[in-house]
Design brief:
321 residues, alpha/beta, six-stranded mixed β-sheet, five-stranded mixed β-sheet, 46% helix, 23% strand
Amino acid sequence: MRIEQLEYLAAVTRFGSLRRAAEALHVSQPALSETVRNLERELGVDLLDRRRSGARISAAGRELLPHIMGVLDAVDSLRRASDDQHRTTRMVRLGTVNAATVPLLVPTVRAFRSAHPETQIEVTGGQQADIHRELVEGGLDLGLVNYLQGDDKPPGLQTTELLRGRPVVCIRADSPLASLRTVSVKDLLREPLIVMRSGHVMHRYVHRLLEGQNPAFSYSADGAEMGKLMVAEGLGATVLPDFSVSGDPLERSGIITQRPIAGDVPAVLMVIQRPLSATTTRAARDLHAMFVRSAADYTAHEASAHGRPRSRDRRGSRDST
């Protein structure tokens, strides 16, 4: 039995004749009639009453019709589900805390677009907790988030380290702090400070760094990109991972710069995460792999630019759960 046979019989019932059904289905009337006859032979039932005036569904056919329509409805549901899944695989949803836009996001999206021209990437910004929740609930395929060295990783997510940097002070090139080789907490407290909003890793780090001391004046920013724009406008200094500043268009144009923070500072990790429980689409797996390659390229370039050997700790090559 073929679905085509059931569809042909349903068409004859709907249009009231073999001729009109054949015209609607764009097949010949003899072909349609023979297809229905084959179904009748298989079922052992005359489904149509064939008369000189035309063919109509038989009494036996009317009894079987609900079952036939049930099969066709189930097939339609399967096709719709398959179409929805196909469309879903044409979209990769990525959440990011916006701290890796320059070194990772832009070049990786550009490379992915070249390799997968028909697949869209939906990029949404958010805080770490929001991204974790969306990953677990299925709202995101991948997430780019930051951790401080030693932070615990959430269960249920595969975590791959991409970049390992350090916190730095991001300032305008004409800021008094730009004349210093390193910036101390005392230096930082003299300047207006742009602090990341609560929920960002750099918010937690700055509060730890200042140890309860208050800067001369402070602003709140929701993410690294907004923080850098505020710095460029001369509103103050901010503390970000070095990989969020290095290579930024504002830094390349000489508007902003960075200075190390005096004393011991923890490493800041940029990682990519994906859910362990969900089935990952091929497009999402490819994008994940491209982020790992972009991170390795960025690390190698930075090491070459600063004349230091490439460290294993700075390669995007380690997974954990």
